[in-house]
Amino acid sequence: MIGCALPAACLRRGLVATRWLSGALLGVVLLASGTAEAAWPDRPLRVVVPFAAGGGSDFIARFIAQKMAGSLHQQVVVENRPGAGGLLGVEVGVRAPADGYTLVLIASSYCANASLYPLKFDPLADITPVIQLSRGPLLVVVNPALPVRSVRDLIELARSRPGQINVASSGQGSIIHLATELFASSAGIRINHIPYKGTGPALTDTIGGQTQVFFSSTASALPHVQGGKLRAIAVTTTTRLAAAPDVPTVTESGLPGYDVSLWHGLIGPRGMPRDVVDRINAVVGESLGLKETAEQLKADGVSPAGGTPEQFRMQIASEIGLWRRVVAQAGVKPE
């Protein structure tokens, strides 16, 4: 062992050595941290879609996944997990590790499900909102034989025939059903709700006259409107539809404040790193701003949305509250 002749010199050497070691360790920590950040994503991502393949939700998920893959230089796998009205896939997604490698595509029905079904997770506290992808209106259509050409006409007719106007929906407890209940409540009218198993049969019977009114997805109803088989009297959002600019909004037509949209968005498990959330939001937001994206979404009757994670959280929270009130007031029970 080599000793030190002067205690002061030893002390100085010890301090220098300690400072050097501390600096080296700090450098290693910072380097490791920077490498970890720069490495994300270093493996494929997955987007869980809680609906069957081939539908509108699946189309939007696959289109956005393709855009994400190109920007992130990683494969983005779409995994369909249908079942339990969309709840099964959401549960899978929100229970995944919050590392940014699992996202879930949700639709506007997510907010209604919170009031209709016993959830195994908190629809706000257990998620990380990332970005809203799309939004679009429902198209209020009537059978041409019905003497109705506007929302005001429909309200007046329903008041003169309480409970006699047959209004179709795509299913008990669906967003379309809740939208009609909100309309009836706001207008102070009574309707006869006829639930169907999907949009197709509901449209068929409205065209055939078995039902008189239907709040339909735009992509499904617009071709029949253009073909003269149905009459469009309003859209349910506060802005008109570019594909049918002559059709007024429900708000313009006498029900101020009525605003119902169909939308999709991306969420993740609670606790996702903020830098990862911001990166996904930026990448997807940039894709939503492309003209080709607008054209692709237009085919499904919706338009790009975008916005911050905070704005998306506010949208989800607001609609959970809205549909909770509608479900309670109308006494809606799931099938």
Provide a descriptive summary of the structure in words.
With 335 residues, the chain is α/β, with parallel strands linked by helices. It is globular, with a radius of gyration of 27 Å. Helix content is 46%, strand content 18%. Strands 1, 2, 3, 4, 5, 6, 7, 8, 9 and 10 form a 10-stranded mixed β-sheet that branches. Helix 2 links the parallel strand 1 (45-49) and strand 2 (76-80). It has 2 domains: 45-135 and 261-330, 3-Layer(aba) Sandwich (D-Maltodextrin-Binding Protein, domain 2), CATH 3.40.190; 137-235, Periplasmic binding protein-like II (D-Maltodextrin-Binding Protein, domain 2, 3-Layer(aba) Sandwich). The chain contains 11 helices and 10 strands. The longest helix has 33 residues, at 7-39.
How do the helices and strands line up, and which of them pair or pack?
Elements: H1 7-39, E1 45-49, H2 56-72, E2 76-80, H3 87-94, E3 102-107, H4 109-116, E4 127-142, H5 151-160, E5 166-169, H6 175-187, E6 192-195, H7 199-208, E7 213-217, H8 218-226, E8 231-235, E9 261-269, H9 274-288, H10 291-298, E10 303-304, H11 309-330
Parallel strand pairs: 1-2, 1-3, 5-6, 5-7
Antiparallel strand pairs: 3-9, 4-7, 4-8, 4-9, 4-10
**How many helical elements?**
11
* H-E string: HEHEHEHEHEHEHEHEEHHEH
CATH level-1 class of the largest domain? Alpha Beta
CATH topology of the largest domain: D-Maltodextrin-Binding Protein, domain 2
- Poorly predicted runs of 5 or more residues: 1-12, 20-37
